[in-house]
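Researcher: Structure prediction, please.
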Amino acid sequence: MQLKDRVRVSSGTKWEPIVGYSRAVRVENMVHVAGTTATDSDGNIVGVGDARAQTHQVLKNIKWALEAVGASLNDVVRTRIFVTDISKWEEVGRVHGEYFKDIRPVATMVEVGRLINPEMIVEIEVEAILHLKEETT
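Model: Predicted structure follows.
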């Protein structure tokens, strides 16, 4: 059996080595990005109380993680969106649509009781596949 290369990227948070996870992992043409929240490079929460601002920051963080392993938003085939208040679904969904309007991955949005920090409103994880040929039916 041939071994497959694994490329991992860290965002540098203190929690990655403690919990034992990577921000993103690429194996061959598959990329998985961990649940990502609205934190800046210093670990501060961006857009406290603002679902729209938080979703923008989350997707900027995901874009960075994808690019760090040689992928892009265009390669995303699935998103999973976790929100702490489902009544904010449209704000979150519209921002998601700004980033994925033409890409149109499959998506799931669910309400959760809370995220790791009570000031966090939204968390998103993605899966991507590189070098796909686009077809629509």
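Model: The first strand starts at residue 6 and ends at 9.
Researcher: Thanks, that helps.
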